Automatic annotation (TrEMBL):
UniProt signal peptide: 1-31
Lineage: Eukaryota, Haptista, Haptophyta, Prymnesiophyceae, Coccolithales
The protein's name: Methyltransferase FkbM domain-containing protein
Keywords: Signal
Species of provenance: Coccolithus braarudii
Superkingdom per UniProt: Eukaryota
Length: 273
């Protein structure tokens, strides 16, 4: 059966083997997110016709999760806090818990949008919650997680929209260089970015989504539970070593994060009780 130990083992093996299995296919993502996405869309029978997408965070075609979709006739909009690119339908906008639904409505995003890519290096989990608690119901999402946290640690980046005083204290400096810690609402290269995989998985379950795949060190793949049905899902605890990737400790001479940043983190388990 699909829920048997053998099926679960096969599913876990597929997660790790996918880049090898699809190595001949072109990939534009930071990792292999677009290849994993295509596999999920095929599983859901959503890969045979153009769908719709939104992508938060745009680094250009190389690094984008949605280029593989737009090149196949999909329609969508991209948002980035720094960039504007009419050719690729990139709008300059800060995506926050207060702005995400308004941005979707302003740009005519369908309520049943096929795919959303969330990568804003900060309050991703709170933007995810704001979106999925609205009338928008994406079928598939990818959400970047902070791989510096081991599996089981449910720490979340603070929702700065909900704490104006904290937001001003942390983000009121002018942006000079990308990695010197002075940028306004831009990742400073330290471990103070995004939320743990555990926190995002907990939020996904609360909001009616399954975590069905992982791009190790980068993104979790969420599918609406009603769309995924009885298909098996991976036991994330059993692939904890693939989720944990403390890559950002190499930035800023190994400095993890400032004391005020540590104090601002949210224990998502406690928050969600």
């Amino acid at each position: 059966s699909t829920g048997s130990p053998r099926a679960q083992t096969a599913r876990r093996t597929t997660i790790m083997a996918l880049p090898v299995l699809l190595a001949a296919a072109p990939s534009y993502s930071q990792g292999f997110q677009d290849l994993r996405l295509r596999r999920i869309l095929r599983e859901l029978d959503l890969d045979t016709r153009p769908g719709t997408f939104v992508e938060f965070g745009w680094r250009g075609l190389y690094g984008a999760n949605t280029h593989v979709l737009s090149s196949r006739g999909w329609s969508g909009v991209r948002f980035d806090g720094d960039r504007r690119d009419a050719k690729h339908n990139v709008t300059r906008a800060m995506v926050t818990t207060h702005s995400v639904v308004r941005l979707f409505e302003r740009h005519g995003v369908p309520r049943d949008i096929t795919y959303v890519s969330v990568d804003i290096d900060s309050a991703d989990i709170w933007v995810l919650r704001a979106l999925l608690r609205s009338s928008f119901a994406p079928t598939v999402l990818t959400v970047e997680y902070n791989s510096n946290y081991p599996w089981g640690v449910a720490l979340a980046f603070p929702d700065l929209d909900a704490e104006p005083a904290l937001s001003k204290k942390m983000w009121d400096k002018p942006c000079t260089k990308m990695w010197d810690g002075s940028c306004t609402k831009i990742w400073d290269g330290s471990c103070f970015m995004g939320s743990s995989a555990t926190a995002i998985a907990l939020a996904a379950r609360e909001l009616g989504y399954h975590v069905v795949d992982v791009e190790p060190g980068l993104d979790l793949f969420l599918v609406r539970a009603s769309a995924w049905g009885a298909r098996p899902v991976p036991d994330l605890e059993k692939i904890a070593d693939w989720i944990y990737r403390p890559i950002n400790l190499h930035y800023n001479a190994g400095k993890s994060m400032a004391a005020e940043h540590i104090a601002a983190l949210v224990d998502y388990r406690e928050y969600s009780r």
